[in-house]
Amino acid sequence: MQGKKKGFTLIELLVVIAIIAILAAILFPVFAQAREKACQISCLSNTKQEILGLLMYVQDYDETWPRNDDCANGGTVPLPGAPSTAIGCNGPYGDRINHYKWWWWTYPYTKNNQIMFCPSRTYDQPSWLYDAEIFGAGYGLNLAITGSLNTYGNPNRYGAFRDSWTGGKLAGLNSPAEAMLTMETNYPAVGSYDVGNGTHLIAYPEATREYWAKLIFPPDGNPSNPVNKKFAPHNDGFNIGYCDGHAKWMKATAFLGMCPTSAQYGGMPIPNYENMAYYTTQQPSWTQPWPLWNLY
């Protein structure tokens, strides 16, 4: 007897394809989540190295946080660790060193500027290539802790001197293990309320919950909205570095719970956009501690 040829029927083939599709639908999100978890861990390592670099700087400068604004190399030679195209002090700003470029203060200790680039983010290339400033890459310095000058070329203009309300020193912290030094943001720094009427201002934490909620859960700050990956790229959260040298991941909703509302913060105004300096004559006030912001 002549043997019959064996092969798949159409139904069998469709069943196999359906099984493969189901398995792919189950496994691909798992793979993506595992990849993001790896990026989160890498980013956490970056955060840890950054804050250790800042603490080494502090130990070398009489326990004072960095906040200067100056021009290096005469504006003609790129900073070590910066692109060769980043030169100038009055635009482009490749040689100007202030809170826009705080990576330079840690660079002598870390010898590595790649730790300033989060693997889950896309940085703004023109800012890096021409100004040596890192926008979008992920790490912001808390200017309410350090203070920030904006004095190069014009020391008397409005808002030039912005001193930290803690005094800009380690001694001004109530609990370094709870106070935030850096966090993942879209800008190079975590903004501050700059309070005063003249050239000398005091920088208070821009901690208002409504402000951060709008940035993290646009457009209206509702936590049921999709999270903004520019602010919370790691499994709906981000990494935070603390003033004692440790770092950890925090879920975005938990972070908001550690921020005072405008009503709990003396009715402070709510910025509608991300910023690094919000000028106001209104003095913040609070009646309960907010340790993440060193508000006691």
TrEMBL record:
- SUPFAM superfamilies, per database record: Pili subunits
**PROSITE patterns per record:** PROKAR_NTER_METHYL (PS00409)
Which superkingdom does the taxonomy of this entry point to? Bacteria
| Coiled-coil region(s) | none
Q: Which NCBIfam families match?
A: IV_pilin_GFxxxE, pre_pil_HX9DG
Instruction: Tell me the protein's name.
Output: Prepilin-type N-terminal cleavage/methylation domain
**Source organism:** Chthonomonas calidirosea (strain DSM 23976 / ICMP 18418 / T49)
Lineage summary: Bacteria, Bacillati, Armatimonadota, Chthonomonadia, Chthonomonadales
